[in-house]
Amino acid sequence: MFVYPKSYDVIVLGAGHAGVEAALASARLGCQTLLLTINADTVAQMSCNPAIGGLAKGHLTREIDAMGGEMGKTTDLTGIQFRMLNTKKGPAVWAPRAQCDKKAYQFRMKWVCEREPNLELRQDQAARLLHRDGQVFGVETTLGVQYHGKTVIVTTGTFLKGLMHIGLKQLPGGRAGEGAAMGLSGSLMEIGLELGRLKTGTPPRLLRRSIDFTKTEIQPGDEPVPYFTHWLEDLFHVEHSASLSPPRSNTQTQPPAPELFHVEHFFRPAPGRYPPGSVLDRIGHQLPCFITFTTPETAKIIRANLDKSPLYSGIIQGTGPRYCPSIEDKTVKFPEKERQQLFLEPEGFNTDEIYVNGFSTSLPFEVQIQMVRTIIGCEQAEILRPAYAVEYDFVFPTQLYPSLETKVCRNLYLAGQINGTSGYEEAAAQGLMAGINAARRVQGLEPIVLRRDQAYIGVLIDDLVTKGTVEPYRMFTSRAEYRLLLRQDNADLRLCRIAREIGLLPQRHFARFEAKEAAIRSELHRLESTRIGTTSLAQILKQPEVSYADLPSRNDSLPPEVVQQVEITLKYAGYIARQEAEVEKCRSFEQKQIPHDFDYRTVPSLRAEARQKLIQIRPQTLGQASRISGVSPADISILMVWLKRSAAEKETSAV
């Protein structure tokens, strides 16, 4: 057994979207960080659709960016098509989405990790966790190497005992062409964690030249591009490093940036201009996606082959995603639908692979060929990569604190699909917070827990650790009760101060944020105080049919993002005030802490189900307790009384 001679502050297992954000966050906070991955060529690999954002997921991505994460910036530099969804509805549900160049995204993320001070990327596979006395202190790999560290973050994605299914054929692995992590599940159970089994899937990839796109509907991108990052100057100025650490001395050799991301001039983006060196800059335009449909013949083939589906023959034991069902599920559960809408989406500009969005399946390869050729425009299509389903182990997330630390083992954090989520954005958000909190544990600081009224990230983590999940969890705007406050356009206004206080947001970004905030306040004051006759400009702008550009006195020098905030603030003032009042009303519950050692068995009036759930989850606040399934408002009222009594008894005994 070889013990690596260097000890780390934070060890991250897995270099997917959760692992990358976790490792970058801890390294940028000054911690010596090790990022351990089975294959260093697949850092931040997009296993399914190479797309970022969409409904609610776009909110998460913008929040990650506002908190100092990397996902938004990399998406902007490697995207091939950008759209703002839901613009015909209210601003609470507007959502940015980007189709990315799969390989460019992966290479850029790997490059960022490789050049980040305090971060070491290493190729090896974790075999077991090292722990003693209820505390983790490192990891042992399949090569027989022990890495010791103060904290460990597990972000294994679909690789924990991953098993892939194509028809009745089974292959061990967490992703096509890659192996599975077979030993780590046993190590997690040894620590005391309860594991379950989930399932996800991916559609086939088709060869572009074999598709007749004239039979499909073209779907172009939006211009100007709705970028994800709040820090557009970083996209246009090479000297703005992704690192927050002090620059290296001149005696050290700085690795050159890849040509794809190297720019020499700083300038503000103009309409139709793309970040120099970005994928869009190289190809000169956005790539279109295409809309097509299945046919009744597709459903006929699926129904005739259900006995060959591992999902319907009982071979797959894991629970699949409710909101991203396979084409078999759609056909069986919605028999009245004669056709299903699909999207043909490019995987990059240097490849002819086309992703068939909405056509996930685990049927045999020969059946997949028949099915694909019933899709409109795909009558002669060739499958480059077959579709498959993958089963994997996950940890029931109610076994975690809101900091994402496990309750049974100190200094061990979990993030991503291991916690039962689906999607790159959900994983990255958890990774960011786990990285922040692991670093703060090392530094002797209190964890950062975002509230439900502060961020979708807060909603995501609170849902997981409070309510749990037995199926792959996907974020939706409907999960956020304060969604009018948690818009994608104001993620920086909600989170930048927190990010700056933590130490993840550079001063140049915070200065830009403060300037934006001041400009919004100044313009709102001007509109309120400037009148046309007896009516203020603010009152005029509140009218539904009036936009800022229609005002008789406007400031044309204001940036578009400032104008947008001014319009939304005024037009939705009543609704926003109502939600802010609701937040204030619930704040006392959220601030009322429950002692960690509080004995719920001493509360005789609690219902048996409520007592069982409270003992199992051990909520940290009354607000969290009130959201636990099986805990009623009456239980909360009783709990409040006993908490006051317990506090009074402690004060008396202390005297």
What does this entry look like structurally?
The strands form five sheets. Strands 1, 2, 3, 7, 8, 9, 10 and 21 form an eight-stranded mixed beta sheet that branches. A six-stranded antiparallel beta sheet has the order 15-16-17-18-14-19, with helices on one face. A four-stranded antiparallel beta sheet has the order 12-11-20-13. It is globular and about 75 Å long. It has 20 helices and 23 strands. The protein is of the alpha+beta class and about 650 residues long.
Instruction: Report on the biggest sheet.
Output: 8 strands, mixed
Low-confidence stretches: 238-268
Counting DSSP H or I runs of 4 or more residues, the number of helices is 20
Strand content: 15-25%
Query: Given the C-alpha coordinates, what overall shape results?
Result: globular
| Terminal CA distance | 55 Å
Let me know the average pLDDT.
Answer: 91
Q: How helix-rich are the residues, as a percent range?
A: 25-40%
Alpha-beta classification = alpha+beta
Instruction: State the total count of DSSP E strands.
Output: 23
List the helices and strands and how they pair.
Layout: E1 2-3, E2 8-13, H1 17-28, E3 33-37, E4 51-53, H2 57-66, H3 71-78, E5 79-85, E6 95-100, H4 102-115, E7 119-123, E8 126-132, E9 135-141, E10 145-154, E11 163-166, E12 169-172, H5 184-191, E13 195-202, E14 205-207, E15 217-219, H6 232-236, H7 279-283, E16 289-293, H8 296-304, H9 327-333, E17 341-346, E18 353-357, H10 365-372, E19 383-385, E20 388-395, E21 412-414, H11 424-442, H12 456-467, H13 491-502, H14 507-529, E22 531-532, E23 535-536, H15 537-541, H16 560-571, H17 573-591, H18 608-617, H19 622-626, H20 633-654
Parallel strand pairs: 1-10, 2-3, 2-10, 3-7, 10-21
Antiparallel strand pairs: 4-6, 5-6, 8-9, 9-10, 11-12, 11-20, 13-20, 14-18, 14-19, 15-16, 16-17, 17-18, 22-23
Helix pairs in contact: 1-11, 2-11, 2-13, 3-4, 8-10, 13-14, 14-16
